[in-house]
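Sample entry follows:

:::
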Amino acid sequence: MEAKRTAIAVASRRRLLRAILALASASAAAHARAQAGTSADAPSRATTRPRTLALPAAADLAADAKLSRARRIPILLFFDRDDCPYCERALREHLVPMSAEPPWRDDALFRQLEVNRDETIVGFDGRPTSHRALARRYGATLTPTVLVVDGSGEPLSEAVVGLLTADFYGAYLERALKQGHARLRP
């Protein structure tokens, strides 16, 4: 009788261990999916379609920095690729609406940078740079990447990399902006 109880207990522990390992495996797979994005150095797709929605393109970050310092508001940098479907979704469902509605319409500057373009722009320091160079500077190797910075271009929060769990992506963006805002207006 005792041997039978021991065998049942061992079998029960094995089932429990298998269930725990299955959950851990599912969690790892979910985490990998949560980081869905497009590599910044991936070859471009032959069929790119024009963006239907976009944020204002980064052109003169020194002027944006001046405005950021004067109003004490953060700058949200959105690192993108034309052929990134995750970027398209982030723009459509979160960033473009957020940039047009209170409170962030007035309390943050939104700028878009194309990680695979060498288009010349004015950097935070007033010197010429490019979208690609800024992406390298900030380590934006996966698109979409969102970084909230101050008027000097210094990060104010942790970067939001990839299209994290879509249901919570807006919350991640809000948190990053709130952290940036709090650091500029203590």
